[in-house]
Amino acid sequence: MPIPSAMVTRFFQLILNKQFAEAERELERIKQKMHKTEWNRGYFRALYGMLHVKRSNNNDSYAFFAKLDLSDKEALKAYRREFLEHVKNRLHGEFDRGFFAAWADFTRVISKLAVNETPLGNAFQEKEKDGKELLEDKQQSTIEDFLE
After folding, report:
1. Which of 111, 115, 89 is nearest to 100 (CA)?
2. Which tens digits make up the pLDDT trace of 42-64?
3. Packing angle of the helix pair 94-112, 73-88 (nearest 10 deg)
4. What angle do CA 61, 83, 32 make, to 5 degrees?
């Protein structure tokens, strides 16, 4: 069974919103759905690493997250292309290709989200429709936003 993309998308949203306890529970659900393969093990380790780096919040200069500008859509697309090249490269082992696939998925999902580095406090935007004010949740996305 392939890894459910909705669960992975939710995991990415949770770590970006710094909801680490829920992200850890979602990661455990993802792990339970995975088959025991080297590719899946690499994919899972990448997800675990993302959670660990975002949770530690020590701005490690060697961590990819420290260098990543989540609002730069062009850079995210360039990173995604680079990660996909590694996924397709048969010289890499299955573990490594799974690892890079997780990062390619992350950059794809994040490039489609309206990301701001503040927690959910600024996630709502007011809109007017028929003279009424409505709140729109900019952080929530549907699965259609991520299908290619």
Report:
1. 89
2. 999 999 999 988 888 766 666 77
3. 160
4. 90
